[in-house]
Amino acid sequence: MLSLLSYRQLEKKLWLAVDKFEEYGIDPPAAGGQEPNLALVLFCKNVAADIDEWIRFHELAGVRHFYLYDNGSTDGTAARARRHDGAEAAVRVFPWKMRGAAGGRLAGDQELAYVHAILNYGPRHRWMAFIDADEFIFPRRHDSIGAALEQLASFSCIALPWNQFGHCGHETRPAEPCVFAYRLRHQQSRYAHEHFKCIVDPCQIHTASIHHFHTRGMGETVANDQGRVEPSFRKRHVPEFRSREHLQLNHYRTKSIAENLAKSKAIRHGDSPQFRGPKVISQIDILSRDTVEDDAAIEFLQRRGLGSCADYQAYVEARS
TM spans, by residue (predicted)? Predict the structure, then answer.
Protein backbone atom coordinates (compact mmCIF):
# COMPACT_ATOMS: atom_id res chain seq x y z
CA MET A 1 0.00 0.00 0.00
CA LEU A 2 1.09 3.57 -0.51
CA SER A 3 2.11 5.68 2.45
CA LEU A 4 -0.09 8.53 3.65
CA LEU A 5 2.43 10.99 2.23
CA SER A 6 2.38 9.27 -1.15
CA TYR A 7 -1.41 9.32 -1.16
CA ARG A 8 -1.48 13.04 -0.40
CA GLN A 9 0.98 13.63 -3.21
CA LEU A 10 -1.34 11.71 -5.53
CA GLU A 11 -4.34 13.67 -4.27
CA LYS A 12 -2.50 16.90 -4.94
CA LYS A 13 -1.80 15.78 -8.50
CA LEU A 14 -5.45 14.87 -8.93
CA TRP A 15 -6.52 18.27 -7.61
CA LEU A 16 -4.17 20.01 -10.02
CA ALA A 17 -5.59 17.86 -12.79
CA VAL A 18 -8.98 19.53 -12.27
CA ASP A 19 -7.59 22.41 -14.29
CA LYS A 20 -7.20 19.95 -17.18
CA PHE A 21 -10.88 19.03 -17.16
CA GLU A 22 -12.70 20.65 -20.01
CA GLU A 23 -14.78 23.76 -19.39
CA TYR A 24 -17.54 24.71 -21.81
CA GLY A 25 -18.98 28.18 -22.08
CA ILE A 26 -22.67 28.28 -22.95
CA ASP A 27 -25.52 30.74 -23.18
CA PRO A 28 -27.78 29.93 -20.23
CA PRO A 29 -31.09 28.49 -21.44
CA ALA A 30 -34.27 30.44 -20.85
CA ALA A 31 -36.36 29.14 -17.96
CA GLY A 32 -39.73 27.70 -18.85
CA GLY A 33 -42.11 25.95 -16.49
CA GLN A 34 -39.40 24.87 -14.07
CA GLU A 35 -40.29 22.09 -11.65
CA PRO A 36 -39.18 22.85 -8.08
CA ASN A 37 -37.50 19.52 -7.33
CA LEU A 38 -34.05 18.34 -8.30
CA ALA A 39 -33.18 16.52 -11.53
CA LEU A 40 -30.10 14.27 -11.65
CA VAL A 41 -27.67 13.98 -14.55
CA LEU A 42 -25.51 10.84 -14.67
CA PHE A 43 -22.60 10.02 -17.00
CA CYS A 44 -21.80 6.34 -16.56
CA LYS A 45 -20.51 3.08 -17.93
CA ASN A 46 -21.25 -0.48 -16.79
CA VAL A 47 -23.18 0.32 -13.62
CA ALA A 48 -26.01 -2.20 -14.11
CA ALA A 49 -25.30 -3.74 -10.70
CA ASP A 50 -25.77 -0.37 -9.00
CA ILE A 51 -28.30 1.59 -11.04
CA ASP A 52 -31.45 0.16 -9.39
CA GLU A 53 -30.46 1.31 -5.92
CA TRP A 54 -29.16 4.65 -7.20
CA ILE A 55 -32.45 5.52 -8.89
CA ARG A 56 -34.70 4.11 -6.17
CA PHE A 57 -32.82 5.86 -3.37
CA HIS A 58 -33.07 9.20 -5.10
CA GLU A 59 -36.75 8.66 -5.83
CA LEU A 60 -37.20 8.45 -2.05
CA ALA A 61 -35.37 11.78 -1.81
CA GLY A 62 -37.86 13.41 -4.18
CA VAL A 63 -36.04 13.17 -7.52
CA ARG A 64 -38.47 12.67 -10.40
CA HIS A 65 -36.26 13.20 -13.45
CA PHE A 66 -33.08 11.30 -14.34
CA TYR A 67 -30.91 11.95 -17.40
CA LEU A 68 -28.49 9.07 -17.94
CA TYR A 69 -25.66 9.33 -20.49
CA ASP A 70 -24.43 5.82 -21.26
CA ASN A 71 -20.75 5.78 -22.20
CA GLY A 72 -20.76 2.47 -24.08
CA SER A 73 -21.94 0.07 -21.38
CA THR A 74 -21.78 -3.64 -22.18
CA ASP A 75 -23.57 -4.95 -19.06
CA GLY A 76 -27.14 -3.84 -19.74
CA THR A 77 -27.00 -0.58 -17.81
CA ALA A 78 -29.34 1.22 -20.20
CA ALA A 79 -31.97 -1.52 -20.15
CA ARG A 80 -32.00 -1.68 -16.35
CA ALA A 81 -32.31 2.09 -16.08
CA ARG A 82 -35.22 2.18 -18.52
CA ARG A 83 -37.20 -0.20 -16.29
CA HIS A 84 -37.68 2.72 -13.92
CA ASP A 85 -39.08 5.10 -16.53
CA GLY A 86 -42.70 6.05 -15.98
CA ALA A 87 -43.19 4.42 -12.59
CA GLU A 88 -42.43 7.15 -10.07
CA ALA A 89 -40.01 9.09 -12.24
CA ALA A 90 -38.99 9.86 -15.80
CA VAL A 91 -35.72 8.21 -16.83
CA ARG A 92 -34.16 9.24 -20.14
CA VAL A 93 -31.18 7.29 -21.44
CA PHE A 94 -28.85 8.68 -24.10
CA PRO A 95 -26.16 6.66 -25.94
CA TRP A 96 -23.04 8.73 -25.31
CA LYS A 97 -19.96 6.92 -26.55
CA MET A 98 -17.60 8.99 -28.65
CA ARG A 99 -13.92 9.15 -29.51
CA GLY A 100 -11.44 11.65 -30.86
CA ALA A 101 -10.74 11.91 -34.57
CA ALA A 102 -7.48 10.00 -34.06
CA GLY A 103 -9.38 7.14 -32.46
CA GLY A 104 -8.50 7.79 -28.82
CA ARG A 105 -10.73 8.72 -25.92
CA LEU A 106 -12.36 12.10 -26.36
CA ALA A 107 -11.47 14.52 -23.60
CA GLY A 108 -14.58 16.30 -22.45
CA ASP A 109 -17.20 13.66 -23.24
CA GLN A 110 -18.58 13.87 -19.72
CA GLU A 111 -18.73 17.66 -19.79
CA LEU A 112 -20.44 17.53 -23.20
CA ALA A 113 -23.09 15.26 -21.69
CA TYR A 114 -23.67 17.82 -18.97
CA VAL A 115 -23.93 20.62 -21.53
CA HIS A 116 -26.47 18.60 -23.51
CA ALA A 117 -28.60 18.10 -20.40
CA ILE A 118 -28.39 21.77 -19.41
CA LEU A 119 -29.31 23.17 -22.80
CA ASN A 120 -32.04 20.66 -23.66
CA TYR A 121 -33.65 19.92 -20.30
CA GLY A 122 -32.45 22.71 -18.03
CA PRO A 123 -35.45 24.94 -18.78
CA ARG A 124 -37.71 22.34 -17.13
CA HIS A 125 -35.94 22.29 -13.78
CA ARG A 126 -35.15 24.72 -11.00
CA TRP A 127 -32.21 22.56 -9.93
CA MET A 128 -29.90 20.02 -11.54
CA ALA A 129 -27.12 18.00 -9.92
CA PHE A 130 -24.33 16.27 -11.82
CA ILE A 131 -23.15 13.22 -9.91
CA ASP A 132 -21.88 9.65 -10.39
CA ALA A 133 -23.48 6.28 -9.71
CA ASP A 134 -21.46 5.86 -6.50
CA GLU A 135 -22.70 9.20 -5.12
CA PHE A 136 -25.94 9.57 -3.16
CA ILE A 137 -27.54 12.88 -2.13
CA PHE A 138 -30.13 13.05 0.63
CA PRO A 139 -31.65 15.59 3.06
CA ARG A 140 -30.52 15.52 6.67
CA ARG A 141 -33.64 17.09 8.19
CA HIS A 142 -36.25 17.44 5.46
CA ASP A 143 -38.37 14.87 3.65
CA SER A 144 -36.92 15.70 0.23
CA ILE A 145 -33.93 17.34 -1.39
CA GLY A 146 -36.26 19.91 -2.92
CA ALA A 147 -37.56 20.93 0.50
CA ALA A 148 -34.00 21.35 1.79
CA LEU A 149 -33.19 23.56 -1.21
CA GLU A 150 -36.07 25.96 -0.54
CA GLN A 151 -33.97 27.88 1.99
CA LEU A 152 -31.23 28.25 -0.65
CA ALA A 153 -33.44 29.68 -3.39
CA SER A 154 -31.44 32.92 -3.57
CA PHE A 155 -28.32 31.03 -4.71
CA SER A 156 -27.62 29.49 -8.11
CA CYS A 157 -24.75 27.11 -7.25
CA ILE A 158 -24.62 24.91 -4.15
CA ALA A 159 -21.45 22.92 -3.46
CA LEU A 160 -21.72 19.64 -1.55
CA PRO A 161 -18.51 18.06 -0.24
CA TRP A 162 -17.71 14.41 -0.71
CA ASN A 163 -18.30 12.27 2.37
CA GLN A 164 -16.17 9.29 1.48
CA PHE A 165 -16.66 5.66 2.44
CA GLY A 166 -14.10 2.90 1.95
CA HIS A 167 -14.47 -0.87 1.77
CA CYS A 168 -15.73 -1.18 5.39
CA GLY A 169 -14.22 -4.65 5.65
CA HIS A 170 -15.78 -6.12 2.51
CA GLU A 171 -13.34 -8.19 0.45
CA THR A 172 -15.94 -8.76 -2.29
CA ARG A 173 -19.26 -7.18 -3.22
CA PRO A 174 -21.66 -7.57 -0.26
CA ALA A 175 -25.21 -8.84 -0.54
CA GLU A 176 -26.64 -5.80 1.25
CA PRO A 177 -27.56 -2.59 -0.57
CA CYS A 178 -24.83 0.01 -0.69
CA VAL A 179 -26.11 2.37 2.02
CA PHE A 180 -26.39 -0.49 4.53
CA ALA A 181 -23.15 -2.24 3.55
CA TYR A 182 -20.90 0.82 3.81
CA ARG A 183 -21.32 2.75 7.05
CA LEU A 184 -17.80 3.79 8.07
CA ARG A 185 -17.00 7.26 6.76
CA HIS A 186 -13.44 8.45 6.38
CA GLN A 187 -13.03 11.57 8.51
CA GLN A 188 -12.03 14.50 6.35
CA SER A 189 -8.50 15.81 6.68
CA ARG A 190 -7.95 19.51 6.40
CA TYR A 191 -4.95 18.67 4.23
CA ALA A 192 -6.86 16.51 1.77
CA HIS A 193 -8.01 17.98 -1.53
CA GLU A 194 -11.49 16.52 -1.39
CA HIS A 195 -13.78 17.33 -4.26
CA PHE A 196 -17.29 18.74 -4.27
CA LYS A 197 -20.26 18.15 -6.52
CA CYS A 198 -22.72 20.88 -7.38
CA ILE A 199 -26.45 21.47 -7.36
CA VAL A 200 -27.04 24.26 -9.86
CA ASP A 201 -29.81 26.34 -11.36
CA PRO A 202 -29.38 25.19 -14.99
CA CYS A 203 -30.84 28.40 -16.38
CA GLN A 204 -28.03 30.36 -14.72
CA ILE A 205 -25.08 28.27 -15.94
CA HIS A 206 -22.66 29.93 -18.35
CA THR A 207 -19.62 27.68 -17.77
CA ALA A 208 -19.90 23.94 -17.18
CA SER A 209 -17.35 21.39 -15.99
CA ILE A 210 -17.44 18.31 -13.76
CA HIS A 211 -16.74 19.62 -10.26
CA HIS A 212 -17.63 23.28 -10.69
CA PHE A 213 -19.94 25.58 -12.59
CA HIS A 214 -19.99 29.32 -13.16
CA THR A 215 -23.41 30.93 -13.04
CA ARG A 216 -24.85 34.20 -14.23
CA GLY A 217 -25.97 35.15 -10.74
CA MET A 218 -22.89 34.13 -8.76
CA GLY A 219 -19.98 33.92 -11.21
CA GLU A 220 -17.53 31.36 -9.83
CA THR A 221 -18.82 31.96 -6.31
CA VAL A 222 -20.42 28.98 -4.56
CA ALA A 223 -22.59 28.52 -1.47
CA ASN A 224 -22.72 25.61 0.94
CA ASP A 225 -25.92 24.05 2.25
CA GLN A 226 -26.13 26.63 5.04
CA GLY A 227 -25.82 29.59 2.68
CA ARG A 228 -22.19 30.40 3.45
CA VAL A 229 -20.55 31.82 0.32
CA GLU A 230 -16.96 31.46 -0.85
CA PRO A 231 -15.66 33.85 -3.53
CA SER A 232 -14.09 31.05 -5.59
CA PHE A 233 -14.65 27.32 -5.99
CA ARG A 234 -10.93 26.88 -5.28
CA LYS A 235 -11.46 28.16 -1.73
CA ARG A 236 -14.15 25.62 -0.85
CA HIS A 237 -11.72 23.41 1.03
CA VAL A 238 -11.56 25.42 4.25
CA PRO A 239 -13.09 23.32 7.06
CA GLU A 240 -15.70 25.96 7.85
CA PHE A 241 -17.18 25.65 4.36
CA ARG A 242 -17.51 21.87 4.37
CA SER A 243 -21.07 21.45 5.59
CA ARG A 244 -23.57 18.59 5.68
CA GLU A 245 -26.06 20.33 7.93
CA HIS A 246 -29.03 20.09 5.56
CA LEU A 247 -27.82 18.03 2.59
CA GLN A 248 -25.27 15.23 2.50
CA LEU A 249 -23.48 13.65 -0.44
CA ASN A 250 -22.16 10.18 0.30
CA HIS A 251 -19.42 9.00 -2.03
CA TYR A 252 -19.01 5.23 -1.86
CA ARG A 253 -15.64 5.60 -3.45
CA THR A 254 -14.04 2.18 -3.31
CA LYS A 255 -16.91 -0.24 -2.64
CA SER A 256 -15.35 -3.65 -1.83
CA ILE A 257 -11.64 -4.36 -2.17
CA ALA A 258 -12.24 -6.53 -5.24
CA GLU A 259 -14.39 -3.89 -6.93
CA ASN A 260 -11.84 -1.19 -6.22
CA LEU A 261 -9.02 -3.27 -7.68
CA ALA A 262 -11.10 -3.72 -10.82
CA LYS A 263 -11.35 0.06 -11.08
CA SER A 264 -7.56 0.30 -11.11
CA LYS A 265 -7.55 -1.38 -14.52
CA ALA A 266 -9.82 1.23 -16.05
CA ILE A 267 -8.94 4.71 -17.26
CA ARG A 268 -11.27 7.31 -15.85
CA HIS A 269 -11.77 10.97 -16.55
CA GLY A 270 -8.67 13.11 -16.15
CA ASP A 271 -6.27 10.27 -15.33
CA SER A 272 -3.41 8.65 -17.19
CA PRO A 273 -3.04 4.84 -16.89
CA GLN A 274 0.13 5.34 -14.84
CA PHE A 275 -1.67 7.62 -12.36
CA ARG A 276 -5.07 5.96 -12.14
CA GLY A 277 -3.88 2.54 -10.99
CA PRO A 278 -1.75 3.61 -7.99
CA LYS A 279 -4.31 6.23 -6.95
CA VAL A 280 -7.24 3.82 -6.94
CA ILE A 281 -5.30 1.10 -5.14
CA SER A 282 -4.12 3.58 -2.50
CA GLN A 283 -7.73 4.41 -1.67
CA ILE A 284 -8.23 0.91 -0.26
CA ASP A 285 -5.79 1.75 2.51
CA ILE A 286 -6.38 5.43 3.16
CA LEU A 287 -10.19 5.31 3.33
CA SER A 288 -10.11 2.46 5.83
CA ARG A 289 -8.18 4.62 8.32
CA ASP A 290 -9.54 7.26 10.67
CA THR A 291 -13.17 6.30 10.18
CA VAL A 292 -16.36 7.11 12.05
CA GLU A 293 -19.73 5.37 11.86
CA ASP A 294 -22.10 7.44 9.75
CA ASP A 295 -25.71 6.26 9.53
CA ALA A 296 -27.15 9.51 8.17
CA ALA A 297 -28.37 7.79 4.99
CA ILE A 298 -30.06 5.05 7.01
CA GLU A 299 -31.67 7.66 9.26
CA PHE A 300 -33.09 9.26 6.12
CA LEU A 301 -34.49 5.88 5.05
CA GLN A 302 -36.05 5.45 8.48
CA ARG A 303 -37.86 8.76 8.05
CA ARG A 304 -39.19 7.38 4.76
CA GLY A 305 -40.41 4.18 6.43
CA LEU A 306 -37.59 1.90 5.26
CA GLY A 307 -35.38 1.62 8.30
CA SER A 308 -34.47 -2.06 8.01
CA CYS A 309 -32.06 -3.48 5.47
CA ALA A 310 -34.62 -6.10 4.40
CA ASP A 311 -37.37 -3.54 3.77
CA TYR A 312 -35.04 -1.27 1.83
CA GLN A 313 -33.66 -4.14 -0.25
CA ALA A 314 -37.19 -5.27 -1.13
CA TYR A 315 -38.01 -1.70 -2.17
CA VAL A 316 -34.89 -1.48 -4.37
CA GLU A 317 -35.54 -4.85 -6.00
CA ALA A 318 -39.25 -4.26 -6.63
CA ARG A 319 -38.58 -3.31 -10.27
CA SER A 320 -35.53 -5.51 -10.85
Answer: none
